[in-house]
Design brief:
Elements lengths: L7 H4 L4 E2 L1 H5 L4 H13 L5 H17 L2 E7 L11 E3 L1 E3 L5 E3 L3 H5 E2 L19 E5 L5 E6 L2 E12 L8 H21 L7 E15 H5 L2 H6 L24 H16 L4 E6 L5 E6 L2 E2 H21 L2 E4 L13 E9 L12 H20 L1 H7 L3 H4 L14 E2 L2 H12 L3 E2 L4 E3 L22 E3 L4 E3 L9 H27 L4 H16 L11 H10 L7 H5 L5 H9 L5 H56 L6 H31 L5 H26 L12 H6 L2
Parallel strand pairs: 2-9, 16-19
Antiparallel strand pairs: 1-8, 2-3, 4-5, 6-7, 7-9, 8-9, 10-12, 10-13, 10-14, 10-15, 11-12, 15-20, 17-18, 19-20
Length: about 700
């Protein structure tokens, strides 16, 4: 049923079993227990779980649901669901609809069929989904029936995390613990600290029929061959331009579905490249925001299919034009609604702001390699460092004014503007710090934008869970360190302000090398970053090595985010995924080269040869067809180059089989990736020579300029 013409507020969240809906359908006593569970993680008793399950089932049935599923996020990078009906035998032997607290809390999918990185063997099948009460259940509507989805974590029989949500929830709790301890120092009344997230989702839309005629697109998510059209984004007329009608229809249907599911989409617009767009929501609790992004990506795929479109979430589906990211706007808030990264109006508030700001900067400095590893993938390697994306070097942008303030803090100086002093050494007087005091830097991978940090390096197809888990953990580690250092200085007799300033000064001295205000795309920055000692992990194999480092293992073990075994399993899964992705691209590339492009080139060569021969016979001379003969030679050379590139690629693939170590094998696949690029170069040159009518697949201009 369409909602066109209705106020969004009248149907927003209608397919979500929110806490308010639960509380209105259970007793006040049980409701208090549930709120304590959600807010403080207390144990869920049978009475509470049964009451919630009964209310949830009745609501879901009223929404047309016949089945429920524990909706979870395994290490595949996608979501997973096993549907069970509400059917049970009643006491009288007749079929009834039933749903117990036990069924709500726990499900049992097959753990051996999901990536486990060695945690589970093939014959060890048992795994459990456990209800996450901090993210509300929701109903997914399908043309042939509706399903109740219960957000859950996924663990092995031994209790180890097999998903992306469990570590995220652990990091949320760790951040809360560390943040609350800082609040106590400032006598802040907040009793809970949590991260918030606003996720900008970029994507491409193309016609479904054209998509179906590109084996590379529907098998790998990107075009392995193709030249950018003569006109694409050079005139800069796409960004914020008029939205094409088919894209607008897609957006409005997505928004309607999203609003019913409580996803607060706020912004829609054309992006820089042709047929590239963006959707962005209002900030939410980080756990809910991640769940909503996963749901949104699934909605995009389903709605696009209904509208005979293909939604491309790959980081670089088309060479030569901008790729797509998932900009994660991250901040820290309290249960009182206070944004801890928002500059305050009093000296006390601004000192608190500086503690959280500097702690985040130092976290990015200390754990930049871990953050780089968290956004590493075969797909994102194609985007990072290109003209529209941050480079593989992690740096922090805070703006010229804050940069100056932090440098002066490190040096014990007083920062002055044309209006007022910003900072005095003893923090006895700090005026109000403006929220938006500087320009923005879209080339920075991690930029402060007034009251939040924008982690721009996350890939468009990736789950935000991994990067945000690492960020939450890194910031937690530094907040704990900051609190301990301030307490130590106070124990030496220093007053709170002086102690805090001393600690902040030491922290920014250590970490200010990570601050960079300039053009992250420039080669000069790469050289400068090397001088500063900042890591430049250019490829996924380079980045993933960090997961086996002592420092990384200690970080995640200390805070209980990953056990050493869980971290090792993720290292294994990510490397294996990289290898599989590159191998799939290589085999698709080879197959298309041999069965699509080679026959076209040979046929064109034959036609040209026949034409040359006909002209020579008619004129009794070859001098009049010299240009055609030259073209014949060019095409013949390209065909030879194609065949050689295929043979080279076969050899590179064969060489990977000789390497047993998974990590070493990933570096062999870097060579395979280069082999795929070499083959592409030859075929892209052929595309510019062969007749348009005979080209076997849709070209870029058809896919990008016709919507």
């Amino acid at each position: 049923m369409t909602k066109r013409g209705q106020l969004i507020s009248t149907y927003f969240g209608e397919n979500v079993f929110s806490l308010d809906k639960i509380l209105s359908n259970i007793s006040p006593e049980v409701g208090e227990k549930l709120k304590k569970l959600i807010n403080h993680g207390q144990i869920l008793d049978r009475e509470t779980s049964d009451a919630v399950a009964k209310a949830m089932k009745e609501w879901a049935v009223s929404k047309g649901c016949t089945h429920y599923t524990h909706w979870f996020q395994p290490m595949t990078g996608f979501t997973a669901e096993k549907h069970d009906s509400f059917l049970e035998y009643g006491d009288d032997g007749n079929i009834i609809e039933s749903f117990s607290g036990k069924q709500l809390i726990q499900g049992e999918p097959d753990a051996s069929s999901f990536p486990s990185g060695g945690i589970r063997a093939t014959f060890e099948a048992r795994g459990y989904t456990i209800w996450d009460p901090t993210s509300p259940a929701f109903v997914l509507e399908y043309p042939h029936g509706n399903t109740l989805c219960i957000p859950s974590i996924f663990i092995s029989y031994t209790g180890e995390a097999l998903d992306k949500k469990a570590p995220l929830l652990r990091s949320i709790q760790v951040l809360n613990n560390a943040g609350v301890e800082i609040l106590k120092l400032f006598k802040n009344p907040g009793t809970k600290v949590y991260s918030t997230l606003g996720i900008e989702q970029e994507y491409f839309l193309i016609d479904r029929e054209l998509y179906n005629r590109r084996p590379d697109l529907f098998q790998t998510g990107r075009t392995l061959f193709g030249n950018a059209p003569s006109k694409h984004q050079q005139l800069e007329d796409q960004y914020f331009g008029n939205i094409p009608e088919r894209a607008f229809a897609f957006m409005t249907e997505i928004e309607e579905e999203a609003y019913k599911l409580g996803i607060p989409l706020k912004t829609r617009h054309n992006e820089v490249a042709p047929n590239q767009f963006e959707a962005a929501p209002i900030f939410e609790d980080v756990n809910v925001a991640v769940d909503h992004n996963q749901v949104l990506m699934d909605l995009m795929d389903r709605v696009a299919t209904r509208q005979k479109l293909a939604c491309l979430l790959h980081e670089k589906p088309f060479a030569g034009v901008n790729g797509s990211g998932k900009h994660c706007n991250w901040s820290i808030s309290t249960d009182a609604g206070e944004n801890l990264l928002n500059p305050g109006k009093t000296p006390h508030q601004n000192l608190q702001f500086l503690v959280f700001l500097v702690s985040t900067i130092k976290a990015v400095y200390d754990y930049s390699s871990e953050l780089r590893a968290s956004i590493a993938s075969c797909a994102n390697d194609n985007r990072l460092g290109a003209n529209e994306a941050p480079p593989a070097i992690i740096s922090v942008f805070v703006g010229e004014l804050l940069h100056s303030v932090l440098n002066d803090l490190a040096e014990g100086k007083t920062t002055k503007t044309t209006e007022q002093a910003w900072l005095s050494v003893g923090i006895d007087k700090i005026p109000s710090i403006p929220k938006d005091n500087t320009d923005r830097n879209r080339t920075s991978p991690f930029a402060f934008t007034g009251n939040k940090f924008e982690f721009r390096a996350v890939g468009s197809s990736a789950s935000p869970s991994g990067p945000i888990t690492v960020l939450n953990t890194a910031v937690s580690a530094i907040l704990v360190e900051t609190k301990n250092k301030i307490s130590k200085e106070i124990s030496k007799g220093k007053d709170f302000n002086t102690a805090t300033v001393k600690v902040l000064r030491e922290m920014i001295k250590e970490s200010r090398k990570i601050l960079f205000e300039g053009d992250n795309y420039s080669s000069a920055w790469e050289k400068e970053a090397e001088k500063r000692g900042l890591p430049n992990l250019k490829t996924t194999p380079d980045a993933l090595k960090i997961y086996s480092s002592k420092k990384t293992i200690e970080l995640f073990s200390k805070f209980g985010i990953f056990s050493p075994r869980e971290l090792e399993s993720r290292h294994h899964i990510y490397i294996e995924n990289y290898i599989k992705q590159v191998e799939i691209e290589a085999r698709v590339s080879r197959d298309m080269a041999v069965t699509y492009y080679l026959p076209v080139a040979i046929n064109y060569l034959k036609k040209l040869s026949d034409t040359v021969e006909g002209f020579a016979d008619a004129t009794n001379s070859k001098s009049g067809v010299k240009s055609l003969i030259d073209l014949l030679k060019v095409i013949a050379n390209k065909i030879s180059g194609l065949q050689k590139s295929v043979a080279d690629l076969d050899k590179l693939l064969s060489n990977t089989e000789k390497v047993s170590s998974l990590e070493k094998k990933s570096f062999e696949y870097l060579k395979v990736k280069k082999g795929v690029s070499a083959l592409r170069s030859v075929i892209d040159e052929l595309e510019q020579i062969c007749p348009d009518a005979s080209w076997p697949v849709p070209k870029y201009r058809e896919m990008l300029l016709t919507l």
